Amino acid sequence: MRITDIRETAIPLKSTLANSSFNFSEMTTSVVAVITDVMRDGKKVCGFAFNSTGRYACGAQMRARFIPRILNAETKSLLNEAGDNFDPEKILAVMMRNEKAGGHSERSVAIGTIEVAVWDAVAKIEGKPLHRVLAERYNGGKVVDKVFCYVGGGWYAPGKATQDLQDEMRRHLDTGYTMVKMKVGGAPLAEDMSRIEAVKAIIGNRGELAVDANCKFSRDEAITYAKAMSRYKLRWYEEPCDPLDFATLAEISDAYDGALSTGENLFSTQDVENLVCFGSLRAERGDVIQVDPPQAYGIVQYARTLDMLARHGWPRSGLFPHGGNQMSLAIAAGFGLGGAESYPGVFGPFAGFADDAKLENGYLSLSDRPGIGFEGQAGLYKIMRELAGI
Ligand code: MG
C-alpha cells in the first residue's frame, strides 16, 4: 500500500467578518488530499483536511518540503508494524526530517494539516469514524456518540448593531446551543460592556456566555477589561493578550475572578507546558486550553501535549480545541475533551459539521461515516473531491 500523491490548494474564505484584531477579507485556507492506492468499496481511499480558519494557506512549505519527503520515503517507513495501514507517527517523523528546533508556526500548520488528512485515510482504511479510532488508541476505548459544542460567534461586521448581535445569539440558543461566545475589544470598553449585557439579557438562564479578545489588549487594557467583566460570571475570557506573554497573562489571572482561556495560537507542546507553568492558568478555576491540532503538528503531537498536561494534573475536560469543524469535533470526541467549537453560518463550506448532524441541549451528534466525515458536508466535500480528482 502506498501514498500515491498529496495535493494542496488554497481556497479564499470570502468573509466580511472581523474580530478585535483583524478581518477575514484576505483569509485563505489550505485544503489537502492524501491519495492512496488502497481500495475500499471499489474506490481509492483519499484522506482530507484543511488548516482550520484564522491561519492563511501554507501550500509553499507543503510543496517544497513536506509533501516530497513523504512521497520520496521508502513505503515501509510510512506503515504500521502489521503493514496493514499507514502510521501517522512515522509520517510525522518523516515530515520533520532536516527541520531545525523551534520556529514552530513556520511549519506546524502545514505539517498538521497533512497529518490530519493522513488520519482521515487511516480511519477510512480501518472502516471506522475518526473519533472511534482516536478513542480506541488514546482514550481507553471510550467511544461517545455526541460532543458538547458551543458557538464561537458574536463577530464584528459592517453595520452590525447590538440588536443584530442579540438576534444572532437568540438564533443560536433556539437551534439548541447552550453556550455562546462573542468578540470583545473591537469597540470602546463601555460599548463592549453594553454588548455583553445585551447578550446576557438574551441568554438569561438558558446557557452561558464567554468572550474572546483575540490578543488585542495591552497589559493595562486587558486588566481594565478583566476588572470590568468580573461581575458578569462569564464562562471564560479568551486570549486577553499575546499568547506567549506569560508574565502579563499571570497578572491578568490574578486580576480576574472568572476563568481564562487561550492556546489557539500556540503551536508546540513546549509552549503549552510553559503556559501552564508560567501563565498562571488554573484548571480548578475552569480555565481552558484551545490548541488546534491541524495547526499544531496534528493529532500525534496533540496526544503528546495531552500526556504532558496529564503530568501537570490538567484534566481533559479543560481542553476545547479551536476550529469549529469536523476535525476538532472528532478530536474532542475521540480524546474525551471538554467540548468543541462551532461557527454556524460563517466561513462558508469551512464551517459547520455533517449536514445531517443533530444538535440537542448543547450536544452535537457524531456521524458513523468512516474517517473525519467530510463526505457528509456537501459543499466542502465537493472542493475536496475536485482536488483529489475522484
Ligand atoms: Mg478565539
Fold and architecture overview:
With 390 residues, this protein is α/β, with parallel strands linked by helices. It folds into 2 domains: 3-128 and 382-388, Enolase-like, domain 1 (2-Layer Sandwich), CATH 3.30.390; 137-374, TIM Barrel (Alpha-Beta Barrel). The chain is built from 12 helices and 12 strands. The chain has helices at 59-72, 88-95, 105-126, 130-138, 162-175, 189-203, 219-229, 246-255, 269-278, 299-311, 326-335, 378-388; strands at 3-12, 28-40, 43-50, 146-152, 179-183, 208-212, 237-238, 260-262, 288-289, 340-342, 359-360, 363-365. A hairpin with a 2-residue loop joins strand 2 (28-40) and strand 3. The two termini are 18 Å apart. The model has no long low-confidence stretch (mean pLDDT 96). Bound molecules: magnesium ion (MG).
Query: pLDDT below 50 for ≥5 consecutive residues: which ranges?
Result: none
The ligands bound in this entry are: magnesium ion
Shape: globular
SSE pattern? EEEHHHHEHEHEHEHEHEHHEEEH
Tell me, rounded to a whole number, the average pLDDT.
96
Q: What gyration radius follows from the Cα positions, in whole Å?
A: 20 Å
User: Helical proportion?
Assistant: 25-40%
